[in-house]
Amino acid sequence: MSDHCNKTGFATRAVHAGAAPDPATGARTTPIYLTNGFVFDDPEEAADIFALRKIGFSYSRGSNPTTAALERRVTDLEGGTMSVAIGSGQAALLVILLTLMESGDEYVAASRLFGGSLGLMRRLEQRHGLKVHFADPTDPASVAAAVTEKTKAIVVESIVNPCGSVVDLQAISAIARRHKVPLIVDNTLASPYLIRPFEHGADIVFHSTSKFLGGHGQVIGGIITDGGSFDWAGDARYPLISAPWGDYEGIVLAEAFPKNAFAVAARLYGLRDLGPGISPATAFLTLTGIETLPLRMARHCANAKAVAQHLAGHPAVAAVSYPSIEGHPGKALADRYSPEGAGSVFTVALKGGDQAATRFIAALKLFSHIANIGETRSLAIHPATTTHRNMPPQERAKAGVAGNVVRLSIGLEDAADIIADLDQALAAAS
Predict the structure, then answer these.
(1) pLDDT at site 5
(2) What is the pLDDT of residue 3?
(3) Region for 197 from its dihedrals, namely left if φ exceeds 0, alpha if ψ lies in -120 to 50, beta otherwise
(4) 294-429 to CATH, choices 3.90.1150.10, 3.40.50.150, 3.40.50.2300, 1.10.600.10
């Protein structure tokens, strides 16, 4: 595992990074600071914090000691320079796009994404004029062909939701570099344990912490991490980062914060102005979840591989999308980027068609019928009628979520019990 920020290993940093015993009480676990505001020492300190001349806490919507510990930990694990914790993964994507773009701007996005991301992008185009050009993330040539002179960013997932394909980040990063635009990577399905996109040329990474980082299906949250790699200085295409802020005494973030200018802009505009803050209690539960991330991800991947391999040989199954199993066309790429396994989310296409898929989900007993992924328990959903229902049928087919497809999120139960439940549900669906 990578040790970007110090000499200790990933598992050690998952437990310790960004946190320390509370100096006031000695509490070893990071306290939950349930306060909306913070007392200033004097009027000068208050003015300095609000003018960005001094780092400090003022109002929990923008930052909070519990939230800051989560931000430091994810920054460390991803190998970035600064993170911004936020109310949800959807809010994270929204803030990233709005920090970079204005009405009339364009960007390229993967056509295979989390259904909520696709829906948000279409709504932003319809209502706010942020034009998106969709491209196949598994084909770098498709991404390159979608870039225009007006492109201001490229957005992909490291591991594609829901099919589990691993994306060639280095190839797409090379395209972004040629056109001098930032590469934004949703790393939710991989987590930094499996893939660290900054090592492969990403500039901005975000997560829905509701999934693997939190891991227990308890809370909704998101986080944005700045890689500190993109040169924003003097780039007029990104005025929130490269131009003066009149309401902050003319500060230019790219000059004042050269290593984390994007993160500062996302905090100022995203949290102070737009307001989708994260609860300190949510930050605390996510911090606790991250402590076991290496253990959980190893188990998730081992179970997913065993389950996918079994289903690939089942007579009722037409196809399994998990790329880490033998014979899958994406295995070489998955082994290159995520040698410990391509996460635990993938799709299964049933030979019996749409009705077989819905009967299959109804017959599951151990699996929970839930729209979330990345929990300790195994989950299943029918994307065509839920998470991807607003997509035209032809686009759903291209995205690998036709009517006969079920998305599985493999949990931490015993693999034999997971397989037994799937087998009995397949039998009932036939």
Answers:
(1) 47
(2) 39
(3) alpha
(4) 3.90.1150.10
